[in-house]
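Quick start: what a row looks like.
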Amino acid sequence: MYQDGKILIGKSGEEKIYIYPKMANRHGLIAGATGTGKTITLKVLAESFSDCGVPVFFADVKGDLAAMCNPGQAGESLQKRIDELGLAEDGFSLRGFPTVFWDVYGEYGIPLRTTISEMGPLLLGRIMGLNDTQVDVLTIVFKIADDENLLLIDTKDLRSMLQYVAENAADYSVKYGNMAKQSIAAITRSLVALETAGGDLFFGEPALDIKDWISTDNTGRGVIEVLDCRKLIQNPTMYATFLLWMMSELFETLPEAGDMEKPRMVFFFDEAHLLFDDAPKALKTKIEQVVKLIRSKGVGIYFVTQKPSDIPDGVLSQLGNKVQHALHAYTPAEQKAVKASALSYRVNPELDTYAILQELGIGEALVSVLDEQGVPTVVKRTTILPPQSQMGALDDGQRQQEIKNSSLYVRYAEAVVRDSAYEFLTRQTKQAEEQKAAEAENAAAEKQRQKEAAAAEKQRQKEEAAKNRATKQAVNGVASTAAGTVGRELGNQVGKTLGGSFGKRLGGNVGASLGRGLLKTFLK
């Protein structure tokens, strides 16, 4: 509840336990074993921040938070809690809250998308399970795409870029360093696996503008953004990395704000241990940096997990508002964890923190918050308020109606495909293939032309030779006749002089034969 400018989260006896809005961006922790009331605490805080005019984001892992848009249902146990805490006098009422539903897969909420470029190689490498060398290669691929103004929007873009770099690795290695084709092949295989897991759905446009989440309704209450994660949580690494990306987007997008009277936004990270499980050192350093610095952007981050030890010490030390539900200690390791948790609070001499942590009932917690000067209060055993909104799942029909009634539905519902690396490289490949085909066609045409020219020349030469033979034969015939005639006349004269009529005939025949023979000799 939001009361007297403060966020009422519970009561310790007759004392009201508040979180001061101007201290809410000092982050917080909600911890406790399964079934001890963490989800109730998350709802109470989300409702209170909304009443305070602060937008809220949280992930709905089990599907039991979506009904916040409906008023709570009065029942015997709820009325008993209201009476025990005297909430009727404080103005407690059952009501719904302004809620917008999102879903990476677009099934139970407005499609939530980002681009490959916005995710970046480090976070993308974690989702894809790449080793350090492969992340380095992926970073180079991103750099080449940036240098050549190739947009990496969806998985098709990245796959095309990987293929392009592999084909031109020798050219790029001089400027960017060696990129083994085996590493590129491994990245491509991981990318295919990511697409199979739904990556082709949540990498695309229109990408989420995180500023759309910083809004209030017409009554001034902060809008609660609910990300349905029932399917996404099946891939824990993808779930954690995606939420980390959203935290990073808030950090990078929002301007510095300094100390504010209340946060710009509060971000709840459920199943927070997944954020740190198997995370490389570089990623843990990034998370710690974001948690430390995002406070100055006016954003409060609240981690929800089972044990405080799920959170690295560097991050845990930044969490000023702590709500610790019951912890179980059945083994020596668990007992050690409970002791460590008990020691993390400012000592209350009236409480045995270690013992109480193991005997808290459902809806009870040890609470320590920051006072108005930012100093942690002593830990107190607190009964958490009941939520004002409905518990449990939301009817699918109402959910779909709520989704389509959102003003953001029209903006994000339909995917948009614009010109990016895939389209550019596809055109470039097509142009290269067309050019190659044209060159091959021209070469074949030239070869055919040369073949036809050679055949024509051969035919011309053949015809020329035939013509020459015919001409030669004709000339030879005429010349032979003339030579025979001349020889005959000479032979007649010679034969007549020597032998009369007989000599004339003989001389003519001999002369004709000699004339034709001499001509053939000259014409050879």
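That is the whole record. The mean pLDDT is 87. The chain has two domains: 2-113+205-415, 117-198.
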